[in-house]
Fold each of these.
Amino acid sequence: MKKLITIICCFAVTLPCLAFEEVYQTPEDFISQSFTDTPQRKTLWLSGSLKPEVKAILGHDYHKLRLRYWRSKQRTAWVLEEIGKEHYITAGFVVDEKALERVKVLIYRESRGWEVKNDFFTRQFENAKLNNNSKLDKHIDNITGATLSVRAIKRLAELAIHLHLSVADA
Amino acid sequence: MNRPRHKFHSLYLWHRYTGIICAVLVLILASTGLLLQHGQNLELQQKYLNTPWLLNWYGIGKEPVSSYQTQSSWVSQSGKFIYLGGQAVNGEYAELRGAVSTQFGYAIVTGNALSLLNKTGQLIETLDKNSGLPEHALGIAVTEKGVVIRGSQHYWLADKDFLDWEVYSGPHPSWAQSSQAPEEIVSQAQKHHRAHQIHWERVLLDLHSGRLFGRFGYWVMDIAAIGLIVLACSGLWVWTQRRRKDLLHRKK
């Protein structure tokens, strides 16, 4: 019995260290829900002048060279990834007429900080735009215990708007 | 009349000899503790151990290398690292199951995903069933029509940009097979893999706790820590007794 309890305790202690991935919504579902008509799928290469701009927003190069996005008139949707503490968080962003319309955490891989998936957090981003310093023009409340995840989502939100603006005239 | 002095003197001797015996261990405890305290600033988790004898001590041997020959270069894997011609690319990858050359670089199947790399090994995009792939990728081949991946139910042909997929219905593809890469490439990959297994924070933690020397080291560091407590307490006691004596002496 003592052995069994020891094993269970050891397992419980190691749980946070195990690989973890929670899919709240697939990117495909997110995209199909974000448009009333069929959007055009396009690609954007993070090269040229865009590369340093992305680095300025994230604080580092984006880990991929090519992004896919979906577009219908002045509305674009992006699926982006950023590291919270140790693992990538995948989030979807819809930008319409230079403002964020919708933010959704799609896949969460960290062991803690998952509160960012809740609507009470993501709703704060609605109608946010970029100010002159390429930062969000709205204050986003932090979540205790999820600071790094909150920061990651904020950086991605700024990136999504910036990318939208860079393709808006195309 | 001699007893209080004897007691006091023997405590002083305890303090002296405990200090001498524990000196080296306390130095190790304190200096590793200081370094660990500033581990983030020193980026200890990003710096890796590359000393052969210490790697041997940790039991870090050579990892097997699996390789696929493409038109451009050998694509290899050792552990979680991918190598192009023996040079590591950024990132960590699941099990390598196939690799082919493409117009922009390479397409490699790792785990169930398809990763597109440019000619210098930078990641262009990773496709999996959640994003862009019609099925889990189990193998890859180059055919006359283009790159084909093997899914569990169908074979899928990619367009030239790997954006769209259609069911492949041509001659049976010749799937990429692993083969033995030249010794130089294998050796480079193994050397790199070995040098990226243990970061310095781990080494300092093991030295700080004594675990670096096995169970024996663990107990020795416990003794050192107890010795430090004895030193602090005996030192304080000796100091208070001395002060008391000095005050008494002055009154007289």
Amino acid sequence: MISSGFTRSAGSLHALLETHIDLEVPRIELLTLGEVWRKLLASDSDTPASVSIRFGGPFSGTSTLMFPQETASKLVAILSDTGVDSEDPEMVRAGTLLEVGNIVLNSVMGSIGNILKTHFTFAVPDFMEDTAEKIMSIPGKETDLALVSWAKFHVKFNRIEGRIVLIFEQRLLPKLVAAIEGLE
Amino acid sequence: MAISDLLDSIPLGAFAIDRDFRVLYWNRTLESWCGISKSEMIGANLEEHFPHLKKPVYRARLQEIFQGGPPAVFSSQLHGNVIPSTLPNGVPRIQQTIVTGLENEKKKEFYALFSIQDMTDLTLRTTKYRLARDRAVTENEQRERAERALLQKQVELEAMQGKLQRLNGEFTEKNRLAERDLDLARDIQMSLLPNLGKLGFLDFAHQYLPCAKVSGDVYDLSVNRENCENFFIGDATGHGLAASFLTLMLHIGFRSLSANLKTNKALSLLNGMLFSEGSPDKFITGIYLRITPDGLLTASNAGHDSLVILPACGGEPFFFQERGLPLGSFSNGLLPYEEESYRLRPGDRVFVYTDGIPECAGKNGKMFGSEKVVNVLRKSRKTPLEPALAQLMNQVRAFSNSDGQSDDMTIFGSQFLGKNTTGPAEGATKP
């Protein structure tokens, strides 16, 4: 589901960037929240840029896309060539990353919704640049489960890496599992 | 409340379209921003008014909205404005547009609701603050660099001050040693100067004024077996220790000579001694004179100012004419000097002096001059010798343009006291 959504996002990114996007098949892991925090804290020593979208419906939770600082800056630099000049680079950075994150997450959630034949409701996406700990400070137990996808794509010879973390409300997980098993 | 009323009340630009891009709602804020009325837009095709929205980048994402998908963000940084508009002053608005799905449950379809937030003021203020911050950071960095540079300079300055103090200490010590050597040289020089006692037929007076611790001026005196007074006055080139060494050599030479030698012979021998022992660029000008008890004055000149004879009768001053070469600079042979003579009468005065007196520079840049020296001495001929010389030196000092003394000054005066002496009233007689 995630792979499919990721592939769909490439089309929108292509239209946005007007350039070819090369995707790598994302590696997906099912981890506990505790493991997610530890991995993120270990790999992101600075303040990653993130876009989060809360979703509701039969299954609710949060979908977050995180870019490490260096990747975020690279992406903004590429996209700044294609966009309108803004006087403030920090506003450019926030706007650019918000839209890219919005495109990727929308595609992923849209794909999940299609496959599960479920209609989600969505809140307006949020953009944050802060420590991974604060970005992922979602109420929950360490043992709660989360899907983590390591998404990579190439834009104009630049490698862009991001992490998609999908956290479903734990009480709905059995229902989700049943829905997925129902597909097979 | 109808949805259109709700949209008219919010401080955002808001409109809604269906999947055919037909405008369903158009709020009052957008009317104000774009100048396009609600009545004009509702029912119209949005793409006809805003053709850029036909681009795939908009269409593809809006299709997801029409299918009930998640909100789509269109940032002005990447697209420009979805609905372009300007502020009243003509500045383009900076907008952020978020499109959310609006469900029509009856028709089981979704409309796209555009919410447009004006970010212009926030963006401009942020830019302004960022520029101010960048300026402050730059100024701070400049200040820090300047402070570091200042600190470095202070360190260098302290090091230089330390070095300077050390050098100053060394210089002070060397100076102290040099002063000590000069003091020693002065003591030696002073010890070599003769005591001018009174001979029965002559009265003496002198003024000896070195301009530094040691002098280049020299005088010496001897009395031969006939009780004749032999006197030498001279002026060595330069100042300081080098000149004082020459005077030392002169004393040694003078005292080694027989006191009965003729004055010109004595100068020849002195020249030979100084030439062989000294260096060609160092020499002494001088006069060697002798006065006998019966008043015969003989003298020879080695490049010096002439002696002056002031007759007691008040007649014109008398000057000798010959000028030989200075001692020690030319030839190691016996240079010939000419001796001149004069018969002194009682009361006649004889003066010899060094060039520091006539060449003393005045405030007007002119020199005191030999003529003035003679005039002053003539005017004071009724004054005893010693005060007469003191008066002359006072006038020279008053004339001088500097607080200090630029050259050594020496003047020697003698008055013939002898009795029963006769001599020519004018001119000199040569032997």
